[in-house]
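Quick note —
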Amino acid sequence: MKKRHFNKLMMPLCALLFSGMGYSQQGFVHESSDGYVWPEEKAVREKLSEWQDLKFGVLLHWGLYSVPGIVESWSICSEDVDWIPRDSTMKYEEYKKWYWGLKDLFNPEQFNPEQWSRVMEQAGMKYAIFTTKHHDGFNLFDTRESDFSIAKGPFANHPRADVARYVFDAFRQKDFMVGAYFSKPDWHSQYYWWDYFATPNRNVNYRIERHPQRWEKFKQFTFNQIEELMTRYGEIDILWLDGGWVAPPRQEINMDKIAAMAREHQPDLLIVDRTIRGRHENYQTPERSIPEKQLTHPWESCIPLSSDWGWIPDAKFKTADQVAALLIEVVAKGGNLLLGVGPTPEGIIQPEVEEILKEVGVWLDTNGEAVYQARITPHYRSGNIWFTAHKEKPLMYAHLLPDTAGELPAAIEWEGNRPAKGSRVVLLETGKKMKWVSNGDRTRVFLPRKLQKSSMPLVFAFEPE
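Predicted structure written out below.
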């Protein structure tokens, strides 16, 4: 990324934002809704079952925040919490103008969605969610409802200025399910953050009951933008709606009407109205976390590869073995893993990320049968060993997560899920048959002497002879 005039201004902010942040970082995290409602539509239930078999997807955050490499959108929200820092030398209104002015600097001339899809395919991912609009209101598609979009700035004359179209196409060509992330709140819209008033928090900044016509315009604006995504961008599998505070009773946008329109154009569309329990939350999305216990309804954990969803400079990434361990725990508990990756301001996936994801993909090439289309088992964990079952065959899998040093014992042992007498136990990595014994409810599998270290998980399949 070339040095630009704002870099000096932003370096103290970036240092504040990213120092000491890790996976357990405190910040705004969407809580899961309480309870689940199965969809009534047959086509949607069938699509949901297909989606549950995919297990591993990517969430691509890209936008104005990528230019300086800061937290996505939230720095223009004036809530006084430590995870929304901004440059203290600027007044709030000046900061918002500076932030929204990044539209004149966002010019990703290396934009390469084919590289994105290739990297994610090599990683073993099967579906992709792309941020068409985050809370800041900047559109990554050529909307007719607003000039605040990548297609109206310095990237306007690029042949791929309508970037969402090319992202969706690139992933469809790899046979991915594709989804459109869309923020229900829009902090740039005069129908949501009206500049007649201050913007004290993330919510609509005027009293809807006093200005109902303005709110009606926001509802129509939201409806029209979602209809654009549903009609102008080919087949969309998932509509992933963020900003759960835009919901009844105060901020009613008529989700029934939006959903009916969306499914008129995309009949088997999965709708994920995050955190809003009911018929428009087709699967739950616990954020930066994994449920404590196994769940039997559809869900995905959305977790970033680094500490943030978008690109940040000098990011500390999770390692390939950490990603694999997350995926194993999620699948053993019945969910999917949606891994957050931020393309660079120039429009590519950086080499460090590509290397990590490639290593995950190599592991899945060997062990994917224990992940994709896997089913849960009633006894899903014993210490550092997690269990899954094959969807159709009488096969169970034991996933061993090595310790942090990667040291492997001479034998591993687990409780429960005892193989039937005469079963074969095979290490998927090598295809070699393992010696095993059982004593009561405990099973011991002896590892080859030459197998002393492994940073990546080992997966054992056991099946009757």
